[in-house]
Write a structure and sequence with these properties.
heterodimer; A: alpha/beta; TIM Barrel; 2 domains; 4-stranded mixed β-sheet; B: alpha/beta; Rossmann fold; binds CO-5-methoxybenzimidazolylcobamide
C-alpha cells in the first residue's frame, strides 16, 4: 500500500500576530522595565520575600526591581498544564497551548431585565440564571458570575454569596473574584468541601482566582494578599493587567504589551518566592480608552489584536493564557453587538488562548444579559467550525465520490454526504429560510429567537443538585463570614 | 493691538493647547492693561466652551481636550490671584476623591482635569479614602463642590457614609455634592442625598456649571 510521507497538516487555520523575534524584543523590554523601573508593592510579606529570599532590590518607596535571572527561574517553575474540574466531576478543563475554552466574565453591576427590557441592578437570582445557562450551553467550558450579587447582606462578603449562587446552578469549572485574602480563603474552603479536601483541590482545582495589578506597575495590598494565599494553598491564579492604552499604559500597543508583561512577570516572580510552581495564568483585558467618550472599550479591534499578541507571548513563555472575547460596547443585542462580539470571539480563538472570558458582556463591561450569553453560544459554534480547519485525508478528499457522481451527477443521495454533512456547523438561532417562509413565521429576528431559547433553557434545564449535606456546610461558611462582618 | 484681538489670540492658543504661547499672550494682555476678568471671560472661558462643544461633536478628542485643559489650568494660576485681588467671583474650588476600599481612579482623574479645564481650583484627594478625609478636606479647602467617585457596587454606599459624616460635622450645607462612577445612577445619587449625578467627565462640567449659575 502507498504510504504518504513528510506531510505537514494544519489542524486549523494558522494565526499569529507576533513573530519570535518580535516577542524577544517585547520580553527584553519587559525585563528592562523590571530591572530599572520596577513595580510598587503595598504588602509587607511580599516586600520581605523580595528582600530576603531573592536578589531583588527593594527601594525606599517600596518599589521592587527584579533581575532577569529571578524571572527566568520563576518561569521555569511554572507548570505547563493546569486541569480544572467542575463540582460534579463531569466537566474537566485542561489548559495546554492552543486548546481554547470559552466562559463568561464576572461582576457586572447592571442586568438587562427580561420582563421590562430595562437596565437594573444585578441580584443573586440573576447570577443563578446565568449559571443555569452556562451549565446548559455546550460551547461554554467555564463560568464566571456574569453579574454581581448586590443583594448580599454585606458588600464585604458578597464573594461567598456569589460563589454559592454560582454553584447552585452550574457544574462547570469556575473563575472567581474575591473581596480580599479572607474572602478567597473562604471560597477555597467551600471548594475543598466539594472536592474532598485541600489535596484534591491542589490536583484538580475547582476554580482559578481572578486577581489584578493596578496598571501601571502597582500592586495593592488586597491583590498581593490574594496572590500569596493562592500560592500557599495551590490555587491557580491569574494576575490580569487591565491597562487602558493612553491612560494607564502607553498608547502604542507594543508599549502596553511591554508594561503588562512586566506586571505579569513580577507576579510570577513573587509567587515563585512564596511557593515555586504556583500556577499563574497570564491574562488581561488589554484595550484602549475611547478618546471621544472616555470608555474603556470592550469592542475595539485593538482589544482583539492586543489579546492575540499577548497569547503569542504566553505560548512563547510557556504560560497559560486568559484572554477576552464575546464582549461589546453596545448596550443591547444590535448589529454593533454582534459585529464586535463575533470579531473578538474569532480572534481570541484563532490566537489559541486557553480561557476566553467576558463572553456575553454588553455595555463596555457594565451590563449583563442572558440573551447575550445564549446568542454567543451560537457565535462560538460558528467560530469553532471555522477554527477546526479542513481535513485533507483520503475520505475527505472524496476522490471516489467525485468519480462515482461524475460530470453532471449529484451528491445529495450519496452515503458520503449522509456521513459528512454533520461535520458542518448547524445553526440553531440563525435564519436561513426564504423570504416567504420568514415573513409567514412573523419576520422574527435572531434576537426574538434568542429570547425564546433563553426562556426555554431557564424553564427546562435542571442542573445537577448539590448534595444537601455539603450544601448546608457551604452555607455555614457563608453565614460565618456574614457574622464576622456584621 | 486691540483687546479683542488679544482675547482671540488667547482663545486660539488655548484651543490648540499651546500653553507657552497662551501664557505669553496672557502676560502681554495684562501688560497692555486688559482686565483679568475680560481675559477670563472672553479669552479662556469662551475657548474652553468651544473645546467642550468640539469634543462633543467629535471634532476634538480627549488627548487634545486634556492639552487645552492643562493649558487652562496653567492660565488660571496667573488669572485667579488677579481676579481675587479685584474681587471678581472665581469659578470656585472643587474637591474630589475616590471612596473607601475603591482603587479606581482613571475616571476620577479625568473629571478632575476637566474641572481644571473649566477654570476651577481642583484638589484631588486620591483613592481609598475614609469619610473623615472628605470631611477634613471640606473644612480645610472650603470647596464650592465636593465630588466623589465609586466604581464598585460594593463601595458605592461609602458615598452615603461621607454625606452622613458631613451632616454629623454640621457642614453638609456648605458644599454641593456631585457623584459619579460606572455603577452609580441618578436614582442612587438622590437616595443618598447628593445634589448632582454625572455620567461622564463632559457631563460633569456641564452640570456643575449649570448648578453654579443657578446658585
Ligand atoms: C465627582 O463626580 C463624578 C462625576 C463623574 C464621574 C465620577 C465622579 N467618577 C467617574 N465618573 C464618570 O466620569 C468618568 C470619565 O468620563 C467616568 O469614569 P469611569 O471610571 O467610569 O471611566 C474611565 C474613564 C474608564 N473606565 C475605567 O477606568 C474602569 C474600567 C474597568 C474595566 C475597570 C478597571 C480598569 C480596573 N479595575 Co475594576 N474596572 C471596572 C471597569 C469596567 C467599566 N467599564 O467601568 C469595574 C468597575 N471593576 C470591577 C471589579 C469587580 C474590580 N475592579 C478592580 C480593579 C480594577 C483595576 C485596578 C484593574 C482597574 C482600575 C485601574 C485604575 N487606576 O483605576 C477590583 C477592585 C479593586 C478595588 N478595590 O477598587 C475588582 C473588584 C476586581 C477584583 N475582584 O479584583 C467591576 C465592578 C463590579 C461591581 N459591580 O462593582 C467592573 C465594572 C468590571 C467588571 N465588569 O468586572 C464616569 O464613570
Amino acid at each position: 500500500m502507498v504510504q504518504t510521507m513528510n506531510q505537514t497538516v494544519f489542524r486549523g487555520p494558522q494565526f499569529r500576530v507576533l513573530t519570535d523575534s518580535q516577542i524577544e524584543r517585547i520580553y527584553g523590554a519587559a525585563i528592562d522595565v523590571l530591572e530599572t523601573v520596577g513595580a510598587q508593592f503595598h504588602h509587607e510579606e511580599a516586600l520581605d520575600l523580595f528582600r530576603h529570599k531573592s536578589d531583588a532590590v527593594v527601594d525606599s518607596d517600596n518599589v521592587v526591581r527584579v533581575p532577569a535571572s529571578l524571572v527566568e527561574r520563576a518561569l521555569r517553575s511554572q507548570p505547563r498544564t493546569i486541569t480544572l474540574q467542575g463540582r460534579s466531576g463531569k466537566h474537566l478543563l485542561r489548559m495546554i497551548p492552543d486548546e481554547v475554552a470559552f466562559g463568561t466574565g464576572s461582576d457586572l453591576p447592571f442586568f438587562i431585565d427580561r420582563t421590562t427590557g430595562d437596565r437594573r441592578r444585578t441580584v443573586r437570582r440573576d447570577v443563578c440564571d446565568a449559571g443555569k445557562i452556562v451549565d446548559y450551553l455546550p460551547e461554554y467550558e467555564f463560568f464566571m458570575s456574569h453579574g454581581i450579587v448586590t443583594d448580599a447582606p454585606n458588600p464585604q462578603t458578597y464573594d461567598r454569596h456569589q460563589y454559592l449562587a454560582m454553584l447552585e446552578t452550574c457544574t462547570k469549572p469556575m473563575v472567581l473574584t474575591s473581596v480580599d485574602g479572607e474572602g478567597l480563603n473562604d471560597l477555597w474552603r467551600m471548594a475543598c468541601l466539594l472536592c474532598g479536601g485541600p489535596d484534591n483541590f491542589r490536583m484538580r482545582p475547582q476554580f482559578v482566582a481572578y486577581i489584578e495589578p493596578i496598571s501601571p506597575l502597582n500592586n495593592d495590598r488586597t491583590a498581593v494578599e490574594k496572590l500569596l494565599l493562592a500560592a500557599e494553598k495551590g490555587i491557580p491564579a491569574m494576575y490580569t493587567p487591565c491597562p487602558s492604552c493612553g491612560a494607564t499604559a502607553p498608547a502604542s500597543l507594543a508599549g502596553m504589551l511591554v508594561q503588562s508583561l512586566a506586571e505579569t512577570l513580577m507576579a510570577v516572580a513573587l509567587c515563585y518566592l512564596k511557593q515555586p510552581g504556583t500556577p499563574l495564568i497570564m491574562g488581561g483585558v488589554t484595550t484602549v480608552m475611547d478618546m471621544q467618550t472616555t470608555t474603556y472599550s470592550y469592542g475595539a479591534p485593538e482589544l482583539s489584536l492586543a489579546s492575540a499578541a499577548n497569547t503569542d507571548i504566553s505560548k512563547w513563555l510557556g504560560l497559560r493564557m486568559f484572554s477576552t472575547g464575546g464582549c461589546t460596547d453596545a448596550k443591547c443585542l444590535d448589529e454593533q453587538c454582534a459585529a464586535e462580539q463575533m470579531t473578538n470571539l474569532l480572534y481570541a480563538h484563532l490566537s489559541g488562548a486557553n480561557l476566553v472570558h467576558d463572553v456575553g458582556y454588553i455595555g463596555s463591561g457594565t451590563i449583563a444579559s442572558l440573551d447575550s450569553l445564549v446568542l454567543n453560544n451560537e457565535m462560538i459554534g460558528m467560530v469553532r467550525k471555522f477554527c477546526a480547519g479542513i481535513n485533507t485525508d483520503d475520505d475527505h478528499l472524496a476522490l471516489d465520490v467525485i468519480d462515482e457522481a461524475g460530470p453532471g451527477g449529484e451528491f445529495l443521495t450519496h452515503d458520503h454526504t449522509f456521513r459528512h454533512w454533520k461535520e458542518w456547523f448547524l445553526p440553531r438561532l440563525q435564519d436561513r429560510s426564504d423570504w416567504d417562509t420568514w415573513t409567514a413565521d412573523g419576520s422574527r429576528t435572531i434576537v426574538d429567537r434568542t429570547r425564546e431559547e433563553t426562556d426555554r433553557i431557564l424553564a427546562e434545564h435542571e442542573p445537577e443538585p448539590i448534595d444537601p449535606a455539603i450544601y448546608s456546610r457551604l452555607r455555614k461558611i457563608v453565614k460565618e463570614a456574614d457574622q464576622r462582618h456584621s | 493691538m486691540s483687546t479683542s484681538s488679544t482675547c482671540s489670540q488667547i482663545s486660539e492658543a488655548l484651543i490648540a493647547g499651546r500653553q507657552e504661547e497662551l501664557l505669553k499672550h496672557i502676560h502681554s494682555a495684562l501688560e497692555q492693561g486688559t482686565e483679568a476678568e475680560q481675559i477670563m471671560n472672553e479669552g479662556l472661558v469662551a475657548a474652553m466652551d468651544a473645546v467642550g462643544q468640539r469634543w462633543k461633536a467629535g471634532d476634538m478628542f480627549l488627548p487634545e481636550v486634556i492639552r487645552s485643559a492643562k493649558a487652562m489650568s496653567g492660565a488660571m494660576e496667573i488669572i485667579r490671584p488677579k481676579l481675587i485681588e479685584s474681587n471678581v467671583k472665581t469659578m470656585g474650588t472643587f474637591v474630589i476623591g475616590t471612596v473607601l476600599r475603591d482603587l479606581h481612579d482613571i475616571g476620577k482623574n479625568l473629571v478632575a482635569m476637566m474641572m481644571e479645564g473649566a477654570g476651577f481650583k481642583v484638589v484631588n484627594l486620591g483613592i481609598d479614602l475614609e469619610p473623615q478625609v472628605f470631611v477634613d478636606a471640606v473644612k480645610e479647602h472650603k470647596p464650592d463642590i465636593l465630588g466623589m467617585s465609586a466604581l464598585l457596587t460594593t463601595t458605592m454606599p461609602q458615598m452615603g457614609e461621607v454625606i452622613n459624616a458631613l451632616k454629623e460635622a454640621g457642614i453638609r450645607d456648605q458644599v454641593k455634592i456631585i457623584v459619579g462612577g460606572a455603577p452609580v445612577t441618578e436614582e442612587f445619587a438622590q437616595e443618598i442625598g447628593a445634589d448632582v449625578y454625572a455620567a461622564n467627565a463632559a457631563a460633569t462640567v456641564d452640570k456643575v456649571k449649570a448648578m453654579m449659575s443657578a446658585a
